[in-house]
Amino acid sequence: MIYFDNAATTRVMPEVAEVVQKAMTETFGNPSSPYRLGLEAERLVRQARESVAAALGCQPDEVYFTSGGTEANNLAIRGTLQAKIRKGKHVVASAVEHAAVLETLKQLAQLDLCEYTLVPPDSKGRIAPEAVLDAVRDDTVLVTVMTVNNEVGTMQPVAEIARLVKERDPGVYFHSDAVQALGKTSCRLRELGVDLLTISGHKLGAPKGVGALYCREGVRIISQITGGGQEREMRSGTENVPGIAGFGKAITLALEQMEERTAQWRQLQKQLLALLKEIPDIQVLGDPLTNAPHILSVGFPGVRGEVLVHALAAEGLFVSTGSACSSRRDVTSHVLKAMGVAPQVSEGSIRISFGWENTIQEVERAAELIEQAVRELRRFQRY
Ligand SMILES: Cc1ncc(COP(=O)(O)O)c(C=O)c1O
């Protein structure tokens, strides 16, 4: 098996699995319980919070654990709109955000709880800082632009956008979805200058169902899950201690190994691209050289992306069409559409994404399989 779909999810790292198992079978107390078992579980959560804070360069108290990136994005958006109701209800977002942002805005707008402006990208998927600034109005309460796009890997100039927005109106909160950026590029908060940042565990070797929202000290948002008051009243519900402990371990490992891993991914990306370029009419989407190192998106006119994905899976190579989170809905990618990619290219596109385990031998084999599958499918479709 060659698993090249790490932007969808990753295998849990063995060191992380060990920590998770221990938290499930030994340190299984409720962190709110006052006796030893509870205190031990609370310590695991505290240590994980410190690891996340160390990775992001923030205070542990600015980290709120959630069930993942989707919940953190919802909390940032809904929590800001509710907290800033007196200022307005306008949100600016990039048109290439993940569904966890776009569908949330869509629902809130349908309920008349928000208005939003989507800023289109250029043909490489990049959002121009000035275009974001132009979309900001006096009643804007939130600007949200992702750090790395999950479909094509484009890195957005988040620090610059945040600076411009804050200069224009310090009362606007700035949020970034950094789910695909964490462990792949620097997410140091001092450099990014954001108020709110979303991260998720399962994209970097932690289990599914854990993530976090960074919320800068002094930034007030309204909690969306009320109850026992866990996570300092921000997110009630008994903590997912095994997931949180695993996330802490995974983020530490990812940061320790980031330089080595990103250099390896860049090499894999370059090599794969060089081999795939032999395929006639291949279209490279986005700008791989300045992209996040772990994602490569390519289109093959004359082939249907989902048919190609199935053909490759039958050979043991796992990749995805566009974003795995929306691919089952069988809709054309909103990201590629916003970038102005021709339908015959976007329909024949696949996303290849690397993780901590991948090797150059896998890249060589994958290139052969892709070349063969594209050739056969095109022959079948008389391309
Ligand atoms: C950019 C981005 N944001 C948010 C999410 C959702 O994160 P989670 O699966 O942890 O809910 C994903 C997952 O694919 C993503 O790629």
Topology (elements, then pairings):
Elements: E1 2-3, H1 14-25, H2 36-56, E2 63-66, H3 69-83, E3 90-94, H4 99-110, E4 115-119, H5 129-135, E5 140-144, H6 158-168, E6 173-177, H7 189-192, E7 196-200, E8 211-215, H8 241-256, H9 258-276, E9 283-285, E10 295-299, H10 305-314, E11 317-318, H11 324-327, H12 334-338, H13 343-346, E12 349-353, H14 360-380
Parallel strand pairs: 1-11, 3-4, 3-5, 5-6, 6-7
Antiparallel strand pairs: 2-8, 7-8, 9-10, 10-12
Helix pairs in contact: 1-8, 2-8, 3-4, 5-6, 9-14, 10-14
The protein binds pyridoxal-5'-phosphate.
Pyridoxal-5'-phosphate (PLP) is lined by residues 68-70, 98, 100, 146, 150, 177, 179-180, 200, 202, 211, 325.
- Percent of residues in beta strands? 5-15%
- The helix/strand order is EHHEHEHEHEHEHEEHHEEHEHHHEH
Apparent shape: globular
The CATH superfamily label of the largest domain reads Type I PLP-dependent aspartate aminotransferase-like (Major domain)
* Average pLDDT for all residues: 96
Number of domains: 2
What small molecules does the structure contain?
pyridoxal-5'-phosphate
DSSP helical segment count: 14
Terminal CA distance = 29 Å
Helix content: 40-55%
Here the CATH topology of the largest domain equals: Aspartate Aminotransferase, domain 2
Low-confidence stretches: none
Please provide the count of β strands: 12
